[in-house]
Amino acid sequence: MSTSYTFDDLKMDVAEGRIDTVLAVLVDMQGRLMGKRFQAEFFVESAYKETHSCNYLLATDMEMETVSGYKATSWEKGYGDYTMKPDLSTLRKTPWLEGTALVICDVLDHHTHAEVPHSPRAILKKQVQRLEAMGMKAFMATELEFFLFDQTYDDARMSGYRDLQLASGYNEDYHIFQTTKEEDVMRAIRKGLQGADIPVENSKGEASAGQEEINVRYADALSMADRHAIIKNACKEIAWSRGKAITFLAKWNYSAAGSSSHIHQSLWSADGKTPLFFDENGEHGMSSTMKHYMAGLLAHASEITYFLAPYINSYKRFMAGTFAPTKAIWSKDNRTAGYRLCGEDTKGIRVECRVGGSDLNPYLAMAALIAAGIDGIEKKLELEPAFVGDAYGAREVREIPRTLRAATESLRNSAMLRAALGDDVVDHYVRAAEWEQEEYDRRITDWEVARGFERA
Q1: b/e sequence 229-260, b meaning 16+ C-beta within 10 Å
Q2: DSSP SS3 for 1
Q3: Do residues 173 and 322 make contact, with C-beta atoms less than 8 angstroms apart?
Q4: From CA 214, how far away is CA 375, in angstroms rounded?
Q5: CA–CA distance from 391 to each of 50, 89, 335, 336 (Å)?
Q6: What residues have CB less than 8 Å from 70, skipping those under 6 apart?
Q7: What is the pLDDT at residue 16?
Q8: In sequence order, which ranges of 117-259 are alpha helices (DSSP H)?
Q9: Where is the signal peptide (predicted)?
Q10: I want to staple 295 with a disulfide (CB 3.0 to 4.6 A). Which of 174, 207, 272, 383 is the partner?
Q11: Cα dist from 390 to 166, 175, 305, 384, 395, whole Å
């Protein structure tokens, strides 16, 4: 799905002085935008064809550490270059940054110009292509939640992230008066995204003080992942420009609700006109294709969890009674289940994966979901009966892995993901997960010190 802003539009804007900067970005393993700010004249002259970046950008952690143990990159190999090839269909203006446009780049091998297999965008494109070969197209939408703070990022950091001041003092779920107080930021986010060719549906207050949600129109999987990555960056930049801070940490505070990124998904015909999940004669309007797809999601739920919850903190969100799921089961319009059937008996029928947190990488999450769904379709897996009732209290049902360590082992041992993504890709992200665990295991937390300083 292309944006309405074309390369010819950019050239005209550059010639007439409206655009002077072009951000050429790739999406890293954490889902962040990394790249360069080009003088616009140089971009339209030559850099629109390609530019380069260090290959460590797809082998670092949150701190940009050069992590050991990766096959693709290392000190021994010298940390060479990747080629960044702008996908001009993603070109757009970024109204919240003066005189600036942005384009997402595919990441290519510097020598062969083949796509780098462990690049998040390449991973999703491979699964999209598998669906295309089956005559199918995935449409998805992500509901992205975050917390808004009255401090700046610098102030929060200098305080040691203590005594943070939320934008509101009480639960603001659907609360119009409270969200009116936050309109300076939220209106700027909605208008900014709309101006960047990302069609916004709404924003709303969420389930805790200072918690927000932004919703944009569904799109094909790759376009939605592109939108998601840009949305997160835009929200931070817009908040920063107004002296505020936003966090997409999945669980920023023990007493607050977690922040999710629910992923709605459905399959359609290749032309996008016929809903393949809908059968007016099926139970709840579900087609056999949908049932097989959902059965695949459930059969491989543990294996794909790492791509929905990639950090230690991600697993702190899975708490009973918080609207975050703890069980990998499906249910009809039931927010206690990990997978919820929405839009029953309509052409808009879809499955909502409620497992993912706001810290996920959208390309990896969508790719893993599609791969699991394809496996269900190919093997014609039978969908288990829908769960009814409060899933939090359910016994002897499939649980979401409770720790990153458990999810990593499920990823490591996944024959399905190794077949779908490739051994090298799975091993690359297993190493990322291992490093995250290693870093955490050797750190001393405030909780440990407070609990044992005197009493140990």
Answers
A1: bbbbbbbbbbbeeeebbbbbbbbbbeebbbbb
A2: coil
A3: no
A4: 31
A5: 50, 43, 9, 5
A6: 59, 428, 431
A7: 98
A8: 120-133, 153-158, 176-181, 183-195, 221-241
A9: none
A10: 383
A11: 31, 26, 22, 17, 11
CA distance 216 to 201: 5
Residue with tokens 């016929």: 274
Give the 3-state secondary structure of residue 74.
Answer: coil
* Continuous segment of H or E residues that includes residue 34: strand 33-39
With 0-12 CB in 10 A as exposed, 13-18 as middle and 19+ as buried, what is 113?
exposed
Q: Are 28 and 34 in contact (CB under 8 A)?
A: yes
Residues 267/276, Cβ–Cβ less than 8 Å: yes
39 CA to centre of own chain: 29
Cβ–Cβ < 8 Å for 83, 50 = yes
Identify the structural domains of the chain with CATH numbers, from first to last.
7-64+76-115 (3.10.20.70), 126-447 (3.30.590.10)
- The Cα–Cα gap between 119 and 96 comes to 28
Digit-coded pLDDT (tens) for 243-273 = 999 999 999 999 999 999 999 999 999 999 9
**Residue 45 DSSP symbol:** I
Measured in whole angstroms, how far is the alpha carbon of residue 148 from the centre of its chain? 19
CA 428 from centroid of its chain's CA atoms: 18
Whole-model pTM: value is: 0.97
Per-residue DSSP letters for 339-370?
A: EEEESTTSTT-EEEE---BTTS-HHHHHHHHH
Helix (H) or strand (E) holding 198: none
Question: What is the rounded distance in angstroms from the CA atom of residue 103 to the CA atom of residue 121?
Answer: 13
383-394 confidence digits (pLDDT tens): 999 999 988 988
Helix axis angle for 362-378 and 120-133, nearest 10°, is: 30
**Percent helix, strand and coil across the chain, each to the nearest 5:** 40, 20, 40
Given a contact cutoff of 8 angstroms between Cβ atoms, the answer to whether 28 and 362 are in contact is: no
User: Tokens at residue 209, please?
Assistant: 């003080």
Token duo for residue 197: 């060719």
